[in-house]
UniProtKB/TrEMBL annotation:
HAMAP family: Gly_tRNA_synth_beta
Native organism: Sulfobacillus benefaciens
Top-rank lineage group of the source organism: Bacteria
A GO biological-process term: glycyl-tRNA aminoacylation
GO cellular component terms, semicolon-separated: cytosol
Protein name: Glycine--tRNA ligase beta subunit
Keyword field: Aminoacyl-tRNA synthetase, ATP-binding, Cytoplasm, Ligase, Nucleotide-binding, Protein biosynthesis
Subunit structure: Tetramer of two alpha and two beta subunits.
UniProt keyword annotation of Nucleotide-binding present: yes
Catalytic activity: tRNA(Gly) + glycine + ATP = glycyl-tRNA(Gly) + AMP + diphosphate
Subcellular location(s) of the protein: Cytoplasm
PROSITE patterns with a match to the protein in the record: AA_TRNA_LIGASE_II_GLYAB
């Protein structure tokens, strides 16, 4: 089949930067799916986008591929009567498919003969099909926010201003949102707002350069980085490029022109995070640092358009930033007039949630849990001595002026103020780490006290939220409980030594719940959420079965990845299948509640195979085993379990004998399941 090039541009008012890439990807996929469904697909499509345009091109078939459909009709025996005449059933089928009887053929289905018709669908040319494919893909875009603009029922996040559809060198008639396809485009709004006519898709690319538009996202980003770094070097600095901000700015402009701005050195007395937040979040500037990582009184901004009269642009941006930094300086000085501890009483008036009380009540709950569980935590004496003070101070920065102006700095400002007030570094570091990990790619707190604070805080939130009926559902999670659960799982599983002194996460959740008179059903729900979120997080590295086997074991979760990797190695051992099957054989029997287990001694057992299992289990129960020694003992226990099932009747008519055998199997499985729950592995 002959293939032809096609090219489409949809020009719009400026789209929000965070939607540019998702919309382009969804539209490209929608068009590809439409081409496949229309029998025109030839090869993968190419696409680019700026804030003002979506451009997709590629090669499609000039004409639809053939498609034939076999339609089954009446039984051959029913189509004609005994004298060979056509019956009403045959005539009705011919009318339905639009064919004469002589054009039918017979087929066999389940040993019976039927008449059938082969229907060939018409093969339309691409220029007749593509407009509808494009319109349907555009209207099916999954948009977070949209509204109607202008004529018709179409919805989009911004008005459509111009469109063009080319097949080969032919401009194809097409209308989208009341806008007709035309051989024109528009340049950069600042430098070339007039329309730019072009002859064909090849000519289009040179028109973009004339109109000061860089279509590829990566080229715009590279231009910002290269030119911005050169500008920073002029003041002896460099830019640490924030990937999220860089992507945002690259999708705000069509022709990026970086510029170097500066601010008064007096503002460097304000903590760097405040200045950086003012620049990055409020103004979308890139801060400049010296070679020691210290903030310089300079920034990189990006203009949309060429560099004409750039001096005016720089002065205007510096003026705006100066006002921002003056406000930040004022708020910082205002906060320094009172210590953090002065804000503690007022936290009782700050509502955490209507169903969970105030922040003051949250701190009281955490003090109570800490005092009741001090022996559970593996903190050194210096850390334990300041734990109450950490709880008192870690939320007080919510009432500072800087955090109320810059909520992104919660915790970070608390740590800064604590250091300035002369608090212990242990306290300040823990306060500063309280929101980590902020994302799946963020690291857990580096300090032991910071890890402890994250667990205390998130467990209180999770247990109280679930008790109040605030469970996340579907895509709704307004209180970020899934993120809180993942934080718990990651902190517990990524530390080298158990933070909970060999206590499990479930035990800690139960303790928090019971201290607040909350039911065990909440404990189960919260624990399952933590398991689910951690399992999902680890799925990019390990199989689901291995993750679940490690998480469901009775061991604490510290160094969980190492344990899963070890299990992966064990699965290559020729004895793995025997051990796993032995565990499952016993597990199936033990799922029934057979009553209280008995204490079994070697002398209580009648047969050699039972005695061999008892001896093997005794070895497996050693507390001083290395993992390698445990595995060797586990293999012996597996052999003994198989022998018991093969050679004796576990469910002996004698109730005492039966209970002893079941009790011995329970001990065996407790040993085999020491590191992994083998019931969930293949």
């Amino acid at each position: 089949m002959t293939a032809v090039r096609f090219f489409v541009e949809i020009g719009v008012e400026e789209m929000p930067s965070q939607y540019v890439r998702p919309i382009l990807e969804s539209l490209t996929q929608g068009i590809s799916n439409g081409l496949i469904g229309s029998r025109l697909y030839h090869e993968p499509l190419s696409s680019h986008a700026t804030p003002r345009r979506l451009v997709i091109w590629g090669t499609v078939l000039a004409q639809q591929t053939p498609k034939q459909t076999v339609v089954k009709g009446p039984l051959l025996s029913v189509a004609y009567d005994s004298e060979g005449r056509q019956t009403a059933a045959l005539e009705g089928f011919c009318r339905r498919v639009g064919l004469d009887p002589e054009k039918l053929h017979d087929i066999e289905d389940n040993g019976k003969r039927y008449l059938a018709a082969t229907i060939s669908e018409a093969m339309h040319r691409a220029n007749a099909i593509l407009p509808e494919v494009l319109s349907q893909a555009f209207q099916a875009l999954p948009l977070p926010r949209s509204m109607r603009w202008g004529v018709g029922d179409y919805r989009f996040i911004r008005p459509v201003r111009w469109i063009a559809l080319w097949i080969g060198e032919e401009l194809v008639p097409w209308t989208l949102a009341g806008v007709p396809s035309q051989a024109i485009t528009y340049g950069n709004r600042t430098d070339h707002p007039e329309s730019l006519p072009y002859k064909d898709p090849d000519h289009y690319w040179s028109c973009l350069e004339e109109g000061r538009v860089i279509l590829p996202f990566e080229t715009r980003k590279q231009q910002i980085v290269e030119q911005g770094q050169q500008l920073a070097q002029k003041v002896g600095g460099h830019v640490d490029w924030d990937s999220e901000l860089l992507e945002e700015v690259s999708n705000l402009v069509e022709w990026p022109t970086p510029f170097l701005g500066s601010f008064d050195e007096q503002y460097l007395a304000v903590p760097a995070p405040v200045l950086v937040t003012s620049m990055k979040v409020h103004q979308r500037y890139f801060p400049v640092y010296d070679n020691r990582g210290k903030l310089l009184p300079a920034f990189i901004g990006v203009r949309n358009g060429i560099g004409d009269r750039l001096d005016l642009v720089v002065r205007g941006n510096q003026k705006v930033l100066r006002a921002r930094l003056a406000d930040a300086q004022y708020f910082f000085n205002l906060d320094r007039a009172a210590p953090l501890s002065d804000h503690l009483p007022a936290l009782k008036q700050v509502i955490f949630h209507a169903k969970m009380g105030s922040y003051g009540e949250k701190l009281e709950r955490m003090h109570h849990v800490w005092h009741e569980t001090q022996g559970w935590w593996d903190l050194d004496p210096a850390e334990a001595a300041v734990a109450d003070q950490v709880i008192d101070l870690y939320k007080t920065d919510l009432l500072t002026h800087v955090v109320q102006e810059f909520p992104e700095l919660e915790g970070e400002m608390g740590a800064i103020y604590a250091r300035l007030e002369g608090e212990s570094p242990l306290i300040a570091d823990a306060i500063g780490e309280q929101y980590r990990p902020k994302s799946p790619t963020d690291s857990i707190p580096a300090t032991r006290l910071g890890q402890w604070l994250v667990l205390m805080d998130r467990l209180d939130t999770l247990v109280l939220a679930y008790a109040a009926g605030l469970k996340p559902s579907g895509s709704e999670d307004p209180f970020a409980l899934r993120r809180a659960a993942l934080a718990v799982g990651r902190v517990v599983s990524e530390v080298d030594a158990s933070l909970l002194r060999n206590r499990t996460v479930r035990e800690m959740i139960r303790k928090v719940a019971h201290l607040h008179q909350i039911s065990d059903s909440v404990v189960d729900d919260v624990y399952e959420l933590v398991v689910q979120r951690l399992a999902n997080y680890l799925q990019s590295e390990f199989s689901s079965a291995l993750i679940q086997a490690a998480l469901r074991a009775p061991q604490p979760w510290n160094r969980l990845r190492d344990r899963i990797r070890w299990m992966m190695e064990l699965t290559q051992d020729e004895a793995w299948t025997s051990v796993a099957q032995a565990f499952k054989r016993a597990h199936r029997v033990l799922q029934t509640d057979w009553g209280e287990p008995l204490a079994v001694e070697l002398a209580d057992l009648r047969t050699p195979v039972e005695q061999n299992l008892w001896l093997a289990v005794k070895d497996l129960e050693s507390e001083n085993f290395s993992p390698e020694a445990w595995w060797n003992a586990a293999k012996e226990v597996a052999i003994a379990i198989h022998a018991v099932f093969d050679q004796v009747l576990v469910m002996d008519p004698d109730a005492t004998v039966k209970q002893r055998r079941l009790s011995l199997l329970r001990r065996a499985n407790q040993g085999l399941g020491r590191y992994f729950d083998l019931s969930v592995v293949e």
